[in-house]
Amino acid sequence: MRQSQKTMKESCCQRDNVEREEYGKACSAFHGEPNNQDGVNLLEKILSRNNLNLAYMQVVRNKGAAGVDGMTYDQLLPYLKDNREILLEQLRSGRYKPQPVLRVEIPKPTGGKRQLGIPTVIDRMIQQAINQVLQPLFEPEFSDNSFGFRPKRSAQMAIIQAKEYYEQGYKHVVDIDMKAYFDTVNHDKLMYYIEKKVKDKHVLQLIRNYLISGVMEKGLFSNSDKGTPQGGNLSPLLSNIYLHEFDKSLEERGHKFVRYADDCNIYVKSRRAAKRVMTQSFEFLEGSLKLEVNRKKSAIGSPIRRKFVGFCLMVTKKGVKIRPHNQAKTTITSKLKKLTKRNRGKNIEVILKQIKQLMTGWINYYGIGEMKNFMIDLNGWLKRRIRQYIWKQWKNPLTRRKHLIRLGIDKAKAYEWSNTRKGYWKVSRSYILHRSLTNKELASLGYQDIALRYQFIHSNY
Prior knowledge:
single chain; 461 residues; alpha+beta; four-stranded antiparallel sheet; 18 helices
């Protein structure tokens, strides 16, 4: 017998019990569809009410830009209320045709640009629904050395595994870089690997339709005869399915390796072995998987110098440690410099909020690394940049004098410094601003001490 439904009534909010409380306001987009029962085909599992609602809520949480149709994530629910039955009928009958992805370019930290494909919000929801059903099917097959885009795995776990290999004596690394990986995946080979686990022809055809949906760039349409657009909800899973074949080849040869998406490091004990492994890996990737290896960036080296997922290793008296690569430090310093540029003309509370958002994500990611001195120096430099910004905002001598007096500076000194001809950067280092714009005052304005934040995060690893 059909089980009674546990979702709330039409137009009411629902929340899955594993989601955080603040996500509870994402409304259920699919009501009245039958619950997923044992024995139904794979497409019906994908299109089940609960699975589609979870996919919808994930798309809303991720937000993101609109695709080629211009529909934003907050317009998705009204559309589904009016077109739910038509959409489901098209998906079940195989008549649904995904729209082309919108091609955009974003700058890389190292220079150059990375191409991203933005599907429409409808296609993002359907891809997410497919991913939620297929991920558990393929997950048990994936290698323990693969860490990218997998549940309960992270980049931090990948670098910890690399550290363990180094401690075991594997002190040479074959760093393999694939050129435009997401744009060069062979569709036929990918579908062959998917068919090993997925037998539902409707699901296979739907995935194929997404692969060949095409690309819209600057108003011009182009066919997509290869590749999985980077940016789609389904692309990470398809990436792991395809590169799982490479993982299996490395495991069969007994290699120690760590892979995070298309970044792969293979660890060996000698440079001679590294050259042999690199040659074998290139032959497999270019021959069997039809991928293009970036031979300029791929190299043999030491894990102490080679960057992997933003980290590298360091040898200390207390053993092998993990540290952020110097490039990561340079990048974050450059971003902070832009945020605190004194002619931005924004309120200081806005600036401090932007700094907090940036540094919270950065420290949460790199907090596993050893960088105590760097964070202390960066914290001091950043507070000086903030004092400079505030001093510039005070502008004229009268305003400066009023603020200095309000912050505890005596009138004579306040008059003297409010009329100084010293430059902004020089004044930001002066004792007068350190006595007035104290750490406590900066905290009251919204500044979160990044050195203390790092110590808290690092101590929990």
